[in-house]
Write a structure and sequence with these properties.
Length: 237
């Protein structure tokens, strides 16, 4: 698979929706993840990321403007021992609870499907990072309607063992803007991971569409020690 430029993928798509990037830093020392949200409606744009424990939660920037919280207020990132869960919805809790009970990432998501927001039927995208004893692997999942048919849920899981330095994968909810919004197609895109956490954060944020971007979370985890650094950027100050 051809390695793509993450900057170009972001800059050329005005509305990828919500996106997850997971990979390994160029020097091979860090497990890297980024999660961003975008919005077209007032309700979707009225959000910020806030820290919650070792993870994050979305929160209304202006509570008086909050309309329907059901699909926009959730914990995108939660952490179990050695594992970091990143998703675009409340399935973060589903994965967390399932894996805490000994289920696999894929098994945990069996109880969920795409979001009930017809006619878009937004895919649920999820990632899991495992960093333990100097070893790093990750998996990504997408649950999507069958070509817009809400009667069928298509489930795809992709696993990446011993990922190469400087390489990652990028999955997002929508192919591009539209009405209805077209769901992501194909397997996660192979993208280049470069720079330290600040350079990478700037690269992602600066290439997201200025009008539609809302918030960004980035984490670099030291594969040898498990210690991590986090960056959060919110358009709403």
């Amino acid at each position: 698979m051809k390695m793509l430029s993450l900057e170009q993928e972001l800059a050329e798509n005005a509305y990828p929706g919500r996106g997850i990037v997971i990979g390994r830093s160029k020097d091979g020392a860090k497990a890297v993840t980024a999660y961003f949200i975008m919005g077209r409606s007032v309700n979707s744009r009225n959000r910020i990321f806030v820290s919650e424990g070792e993870g994050i939660r979305t929160q209304a920037h202006d509570p008086s403007k909050l309309e329907d919280p059901s699909l926009i207020i959730y914990a995108p990132v939660r952490v179990l021992p050695h594992m970091t869960i990143v998703t675009n919805g409340d399935q973060t809790d589903t994965v967390y609870d399932g894996m805490e009970k000994g289920m696999t990432f894929e098994q945990s998501l069996r109880s969920r499907e795409f979001e009930p927001d017809g006619p878009n039927y937004t895919p649920r995208i999820s990632g899991i990072m495992n960093v333990k004893d100097g070893i790093f692997d990750y998996a990504m999942s997408i649950l999507k309607s069958n070509n817009g048919n809400p009667e069928s849920c298509n489930r795809y899981t992709y696993s990446y063992e011993n990922p190469a330095a400087g390489e990652g994968h990028f999955i997002h909810t929508y192919m591009h803007d539209g009405n209805p919004l077209p769901s992501f197609e194909g397997e996660p895109k192979c993208v280049e991971i470069s720079g330290d956490i600040d350079a990478f954060t700037d690269k992602v944020w600066s290439n997201l569409n200025e009008e539609n971007k809302v918030s960004l979370f980035v984490r670099y985890i030291d594969i040898a020690t498990g210690k991590y650094e986090t960056r959060i950027i919110n358009k709403n100050k």
